[in-house]
């Protein structure tokens, strides 16, 4: 249901257009790029969170929407700084880690070059108090769209938002990333129907604040899905250099292949359009199981059907190796391996590496982004992010925008992914 809602968000947004080393927790990775941005005393910190049930890769998309909105606020004269919400407690992270810093997963200085951003723990050090000025809880309009989707926002009584907060000693207590000593002075609900522009206007025109916490930020749509600003935000979301290196080492040492592709530039701003990347001599599939089997059932391929499609993809591109990114259990993977006529590789970190589940997932995505060809899972945001990575890395469209089909295509169909091409 959440994935279908995500697709609806994408559709609506299109109407108007087509870890760094973490040993030192106080290092400058989480600080602003002071060569590019100043941090005067009138800074306005913007914090946000999303519905607790949303997954890792949808949260990455929400970050882009909020980051674009913060950038637009700065263009309106607000000295806004985005506070990066700690990762953790996600359904697909079996280790249930919480309080994970962005620098363990992404290149924070790269994010910082798109819009000034700091880690949450740095905010707690820099801000005068761990008490937010207010919580703004975004909710949908109770009356719905009324046949026309117009951009609007309006302060209204809470429909259910206040149920997630408790007022004690004059302050509001909420989840707040699982920290017990963080509070808010005010709580209000805003019925919201709009995009990053609407959100930027809402904050810039209606609030003066030092710190504001926006809950249910997934309500915000993209102002221009897959437009220039979208891709600028997405290109700035580079992975941790350590995770990039780990993925490249796996390709070289485990799959035993070289990457035939143009390398990323030192800065994302210097990237240029290209379709010259060929990739390593292996294909990749993202094979969702677990909740997907329950949600989509016979619309997905069986294990034997998955093996048949992966073998055909490898044959099409003249390779004899395949990598699979999956949440399947080991028994399913071994059964899949029995049906394959090619060599299958999976990534399983060594215990001494101490890679959290989110980091392991990113390594898998990077490995897939360097493959000769990729095929994904139906309506999976994990697959969407790999497709974007391959666009950034300069692969031909036909090697990227594919999905695995149900065994009975005549009955269930197999609509292929839309080709959201990169724009510079």
Automatic annotation (TrEMBL):
Uppermost EC category: transferase
Keywords tagged on the record: Carbohydrate metabolism, Endoplasmic reticulum, Fucose metabolism, Signal, Transferase
Name by which UniProt lists this protein: GDP-fucose protein O-fucosyltransferase 2
Subcellular location: Endoplasmic reticulum
Pfam families reported for this sequence: O-FucT
Gene Ontology CC, one term: endoplasmic reticulum
InterPro entries: GDP-Fuc_O-FucTrfase, OFUT2-like
PANTHER family, sorted: GDP-FUCOSE PROTEIN O-FUCOSYLTRANSFERASE 2
Gene3D superfamilies: 3.40.50.11340, 3.40.50.11350
EC number of this enzyme: 2.4.1.221
Assigned protein family: Belongs to the glycosyltransferase 68 family.
GO molecular function, one term: peptide-O-fucosyltransferase activity
UniProt feature coiled coil, ranges: none
Biological process terms in GO annotation: fucose metabolic process
Catalytic activity: L-threonyl-[protein] + GDP-beta-L-fucose = 3-O-(alpha-L-fucosyl)-L-threonyl-[protein] + GDP + H(+); L-seryl-[protein] + GDP-beta-L-fucose = 3-O-(alpha-L-fucosyl)-L-seryl-[protein] + GDP + H(+)
Spans traversing the lipid bilayer: none
Endpoints of the signal sequence: 1-19
First-listed, main subcellular location of the protein, grouped into a coarse class: endoplasmic reticulum
Pathway linked to the protein: Protein modification; protein glycosylation
